[in-house]
Amino acid sequence: MHAGLVIQESIEINAPLEKVWENFIDLTCWDQWNTVMQNVLTNGQQLTRGKKIFCSFRPFFFPIRVNISVEEVVPYERVVWSAKKKGLSAHHEFDFRSNGTAVIVASLETFTGVLARGEGILLPKRKMKALTRDFLCDLKRAAEA
Questions:
Q1: What is the model's pTM?
Q2: How many domains would you assign to the chain?
Q3: How large is the average pLDDT for residues 58-68?
């Protein structure tokens, strides 16, 4: 059985952990820094367990609407969310670690389902990796500003 598609990325952000964390969980400022997830609508202002996020992203020429469910929030350490779309399930983990001078944000996203199978024709790994990298770079710019 095929395990699906796995995207791992990390970034070092030269800012205090508190600032990185606040930028990440404050959904009211996402439109200002987040170029990957657009038209973000939510039932509240901060990422918390049980929160629903409705947004779109554009891995191809057309936007894809997704409904994200926040599964876990450990303050200043970890956020886990998941999304399901016809033929595809995504599980995304973000870990935050301060190394004393900077914050390392690690992202692990796993896609399963019929669209994640095969050679990445329907869900190209390179494009999904670029979107994850862009999201982390956007967060870096916002937190370092």
A1: 0.90
A2: 1
A3: 80
